[in-house]
Design goal:
single chain, alpha+beta, Alpha-D-Glucose-1,6-Bisphosphate, Chain A, domain 4, 7-stranded antiparallel β-sheet, 4 helices, 7 strands, 22% helix
Length: 119
């Protein structure tokens, strides 16, 4: 079985601290992405092993291939601002793979700006 890595950068005019806060809080994530996420349920304290279940809005579900996305935190490094999750359930891509892991690394991109590196 061959592995595959897809990466993307997405510059944001939002501070790194604010983006990290949203990435680490189900409540903040739901508020920031209200057009895409209806509810967020977290089982755990955010550390490795925490299960997060996102119920997507109808518009987001149409593009994602389903209305539910469930992930498990593998790594959450506050100092390095890196989070790695295993996708347990949901999405077009996950349905076609044996396993799927996502990683976000946040870097500062100037005053009040962040550069998330998604992979």
């Amino acid at each position: 079985m061959a592995g595959c890595v897809i990466t993307e950068e997405c510059a944001m005019a939002v501070s790194v601290d604010r983006v990290w806060k949203v990435a680490c809080s189900g409540e903040a994530l739901q508020k920031a992405c209200a057009a895409f996420i209806d509810t967020v349920e977290e089982e755990g304290d955010g550390s490795p092993g925490t299960i997060t279940t996102l119920k997507l809005s109808a518009a987001a579900a149409a593009n994602a291939g389903g209305s539910l996305m469930k992930t498990c935190v593998m790594v959450r490094d506050h100092a390095a601002r890196v989070q790695r999750n295993e996708v347990l359930e949901g999405g077009k891509v996950r349905a076609q793979l044996k396993s799927q892991v996502t990683e976000v690394k946040l870097e500062a991109a100037g005053e009040g700006a962040a550069l998330p590196r998604l992979g």
